[in-house]
Amino acid sequence: MLTLIQEDGDTFAQRAEMYYKRRPELVKMVEDLRRSYRSLAERYHQLKSEQPPLALRSNSSLSNASTKQHLHRSHILEAPELPKETSDTLAQLEFQVALLEDHLKQHGELIRRNEEKREIIRELRLEQQRMLEEIQALKSCTSRETVASGRRSNASHVSRLKGLFFGRLSVDK
């Protein structure tokens, strides 16, 4: 079980992907361990309850039924305790699973933010392209107006010259 957790990928994404793929396997192993321990604890308590303590055996006034009932109640009240190693391992595994889930959550958040930023960049590029096209259109429009105004000014100069020329001709006659 520990080898599944301790195998590291080269990058965070690889580790997250590995965890994502192996998480069901880890959860199943922990559940199997828990079931096995519970079964073992129940069997232990069953065997222990089949042989009453010496004090109960020597007391002849207690019937077999009341003894079994008393033992059954005492076992119900007792919570089965995990051996320290199993408890520590289980706590460590739960902690590691919680850490991995947190890392996956953070990784998902980073991916979401990156996608949002990529979308914003794409929109800005489209806006930039639209503005460049608009600038080109304005430049071409401005250059046409300059050429047209230049023709108009040339035409007005020509008409003035004609007027002057023809006016002098008529005055000289």
UniProtKB/TrEMBL annotation:
Q: What PROSITE patterns does UniProt report for this protein, alphabetically?
A: NAB
Which superkingdom, per the lineage? Eukaryota
Pfam families in the record, alphabetically?
A: KIP1 (PF07765)
Q: NAB domain location, by residue? A: 1-51
Q: What Gene Ontology molecular-function terms does this entry list?
A: actin binding
Q: Where are the transmembrane segments?
A: none
Keyword Metal-binding assigned to the entry: answer is no
Q: What is this protein called?
A: NAB domain-containing protein
Could you tell me which species this protein originates from? Acorus gramineus
